[in-house]
Amino acid sequence: DAIAPARKRIQFGADAGLNVAMMESLRNLFMQVFGPEHGRTDTAVREYARALAAAGKLREAAEVYVAALPGWEARGGVDHPKLVPVRTEIAECLRRSGQPERAIPLFETVIARSEALGTESPVQAARRGLAICLSDVGRHDEAIATAQEALRRLTLMPPPELMDRAFLEGVLASIYRFAGKVTDAEMLYHELLSPGRQERLKGHPQFRPATGAWAGELGMLLHADARPDEAKPWVAMGLRLMRDEASRVNPTARWLRE
User: Which terminus of the chain is more exposed, N or C, with fewer CB under 10 A?
Assistant: First the structure.
């Protein structure tokens, strides 16, 4: 399998530019050898889009995905189960590249199809993404309801992963903040940042950046609520935890530094 070594390089964080060039070459080669409608070419196109996304080229990745999706639907069927994770990948690229309006219908399709198939894992990621997108376009009540439903369903999954729940609660707190529900947001951030919750979450690889984001967002909330003295320790905590390379593009980290 010519794609396997390139996929391994992407997973283990090798040079992103080299990954993109490698997968683009494979895609072009498979197009020539197998044609645009062959299953191996479909795989190469998807891996090329993944490489672009891993390199931070989200808009380019989204366009590669979007251009390929009609062909994948035509060959496998619109309702093929394998298209559920593909649509999730496309929707996440659109969401993360600042195109929530385009991501929303894809997330909704993933949710509807996953529920029809009885598969909970993809639908949880889709509900989280959908809640963020709905908030981004100002549909705050729908965003809150979607995030709350995702949390409710997560508690029914045996056993609920502690950081998965925390991520969802962080999303809900952020939606509350943008919806102007200061008290609800503040209570949820304080719960996430409480010593007991922090003790249970530490050790997870995303513990530091997630905690930094929650602390920074709480600081932003308090600052906007004209409570600068209360905001300062949370801003300082957010800055301390979000100094790593991966956090430099995070909007919360940018606000804290400024």
Answer: C
